[in-house]
Amino acid sequence: MASLAFLLGMVPSTEKVETADDKIRADYAEFLKFENSDELKHFKELEKEVKSSDFAARKRVIMKEKYKTSEEFRKEAQLKQLQKRSKGDEQAEGMKELETEINSDGFIKRKQYFSMNSKERYETTEEYQKEHEYNELKKSEKVVWYFKTKKKYPFKEIERWEETFNEPFSSSSLDRNKWMTSYYWADAALKEPYVMADDQSFITDGKNVEFYDNKIRLVTKNEETEGYKLHLDHGFLIDHFDFTSALISTGKSFRQKYGMFKAKIKMSPADVQQAFWMVTETAVPHIDVARFERGKLWCNYFWSAREGQIPAKSQSKTGGAKYTNDFFIVTLEWSPNKLVWKINGKVFKTQTSGVPQDEMYMIFSTALKEGGSESTLPAAMEIDWVRVYKLKE
Question: Which of 112, 191, 230, 342 is the S-S candidate for 331 at Cβ 3.0 to 4.6 Å?
Fold first, then answer.
């Protein structure tokens, strides 16, 4: 059964969910970049110095400095004493040297320095420049954002996961290193593509895969062809088909045990089965992350309770019309003891029985099934992106 949030229609918009996710990931990247920047390193070095007891002591000395206790005052007094002892043209030893120093630009500037009040005097120092720079940096937008973000640290959930698969469909053709266009066992055992007994359409070798606007379309359409069908009584036989469809699978390239499997998809309102599903080497366990059929969106799980018995099943559905109007983000979170289905971040279904313990691969497919209406063809399931994550060690 679907969760209460779905029964009440309390599902956030895809745009809101994706915008929030993009922002938190962009913020995390910016946070890490700034955390390792020379700018922050410089700020911390300034802060360490400005906040040190040594800096405070130097500042106190500067603020309390008086001319009468300065070296300049002592030298002027010394010159006056020497001038008193001089006779006529005779000058006391060292007097000329002192006069030269006292009349120098540097000495005059030092006297001017002592003529200022303590605040003005401090503002001429290197210490003031460092303290001023520190205070300005401390108020800067980037530094304020960094320390505010560091305190809240909203990245804990992101840091739990490591991306293992990413398909943005940004090319104009299918990446054959990632995707095969038939059932895994069609290639591994039969060496020919095939479809199931209840299929009215035949899966083509990528001909029904279309690209547009950095998205992919899996198309089911009116088109005659021939191919193998798996009949329950007679095995694989060549059949004639009036329709073709599409499938892409990571059976050869990518499998994973546990993790988070996500895709942004849009279903067609046509009477065509469209699905994002996962399987192992065998028919069960089988997970429907999202399956659209007969106007309903299904999240299903089939597994073998005991060897030789009919597979157990857990099926949940919700009204599917809304999922044909826009893209939605469907997610399966798979842990050792639980399967959790989410749509736009909201939990739709939870399963704790018979949780699979083997690697699984992903399949996206469309097909006209027995009883389906051809009047709505052509029809396409659209996929914007696919991403997979695993928990970090």
Answer: 342
Among residues 183, 195, 264, 258, the alpha carbon closest in space to that of 231 is found at: 195
CATH of the domain at 255: 2.60.120.200
Q: Which domain holds residue 85?
A: 38-151
Q: H or E element: which one contains 298? A: strand 296-303
Give which of 182, 214, 246 is closest to 385, Cα–Cα: 214
Q: State how many domains the chain has.
A: 2
Contact at 8 Å (CB) between 128 and 122? yes
**Contact (CB, 8 A) for 112 and 67:** no
Q: What is the pTM of this model?
A: 0.83
CA distances from 374 to 64, 114, 217 (A): 94, 96, 18
Inside any domain, residue 32: no
Has residue 33 been placed in a domain?
A: no
Q: Residue 66: which H helix or E strand, with range?
A: none
The reply to whether 55 and 16 lie within a common domain is: no
Q: Is 274 helix (H, G, I), strand (E, B) or coil?
A: strand
Distance from C-alpha of 211 to C-alpha of 171, rounded to nearest angstrom:
8
* Run of H or E residues at 293: strand 286-293
